[in-house]
Amino acid sequence: MINKDQTFESKYELLEELGKGMFGTVKKCQCTDTGVEYAAKVVRKTTKNKEEVVREVSTMNLLQHKSIAQIHDAFESKRQMVIVMELIRGKELFEKVCQEDTLLTEKQCVYYLRQILSGVEYMHKKKIVHLDLKPENILCIDSPQGYDEIKLIDFGLARDLSSTKQLSCICGTPEFVAPEVINFDPISVQSDMWSLGVITYVLLSGISPFLGDDDGETLQNVTFGEFDFEDEDGAFEHVSEIAKEFISDLLCLNPRDRLSVGDCLEHSWLNTQTNEEELDTTNLKKFIARRRWLRTIHAIKAVGRFNQVANSLGGKGKKGGDSLAKTMLAALNAANKENSIDKGR
């Protein structure tokens, strides 16, 4: 629920800024009673922004899982909306595995993926689809017990699928978005599984399977769904065949053909993987550097911009990779004029 009886300022003190973007500002804050620090997402109140915040708060209130960032409080005043979230002190997963003191193996990848899948399984059982699973939204923190813990963050694009009504939307990040999203076909929890397939591909190789020279070409590549495990740098040289099979079973154009989260957790790769041969993270480091640079010029999460494009289609999706890519690219170009919000860490 959103607190309208108390003000944010009556319970919290704002500290330094963590990030800023088109939806507002993320700042560290401290509870004046307990001294506990949180991340506060402060959004200027408009009719549209209020709808987005209410939906995000409603979604987060349904998700109580150790691998999902937790909402703590929410406020509404005359001028702004504030979401108070768990402050996650950690690194993005891909940055974590590229540290000099970290040995990346398939066994270690499986360790992280099982945690990611655990959080996704919980979401999907609640009929929630994330729709923006990507490296930046998967954080890794050191637990008090001394092992790495995964936290899934940023549910600004998440949708509740509990209604029997089919839902279509244009949102997400080109390299990780599912084909049905681009095609404006009905989305489902299987849309997240495509994204997890791309994430696994990148984690093991450092290569983005559908990356084009620009966003438009990337989106076309996704709609074609063509990929392989051949690379001139030999990125998959030390990756097992069963891991490649796992990825292939996720990157299916037809959502019904993809592994479900339950199928993934039962897959032999996640249950028998003992390969401790070190994986080369050179390409992954390049991938991280490119993503970091892109974040300075892109605001991919511009849901409102995507909705404008969707409305221009009259609720009907265009068919054909080229026209669809151009349509979504138009929305992306509009979004690129804004700065994205960096996550509270």
From TrEMBL:
The keyword Oxidoreductase does not apply. PROSITE patterns: PROTEIN_KINASE_ATP, PROTEIN_KINASE_DOM, PROTEIN_KINASE_ST. GO terms for biological process: intracellular signal transduction; positive regulation of apoptotic process. It comes from the Eukaryota. GO terms for cellular component: nucleus. The keyword Transcription regulation does not apply. It holds the Pfam family Pkinase. Belongs to the protein kinase superfamily. This is Protein kinase domain-containing protein. It comes from Clytia hemisphaerica.
